[in-house]
Amino acid sequence: MADIFDVIADPTRRDILKVLLDRNSDDSQSVGEISVSEIVARLELSQPTVSKHLKVLREASLVAVREEGQHRYYRLDPTPLEAVEDWVIPFTASDIDASAITAQLAEETREFASTVGKVLADTRRRVERVTPKKWRRD
Asked: Is the pTM of this model over 0.70?
């Protein structure tokens, strides 16, 4: 499988992804699918060129295809782009105070752990009240 960065480096593939994204966000269309012929018409490219690029996008799991007779309908699957997002964010998020986020997460983690501990302790007390002593593992 090609590296996701190599796949999205090609401007034609980015154009195809944009067409799929536009279809995906268009509420009037069903399931965000678009046929190859519609992509060809929108981008004014040849069908073999579009098919070649769709194959690369399919192999990178950026698109899913549904076959209906001789027709192919494509839809966007943005999941693989999360790797790109993870790589780009540190370069674009320079105004974020990492120490403040870390402190906030630590506080939330402590609160969560405290809540879980209280729930577990309460559950154990309830079980002890209803479980006969001879069945308990103390």
From this structure: no
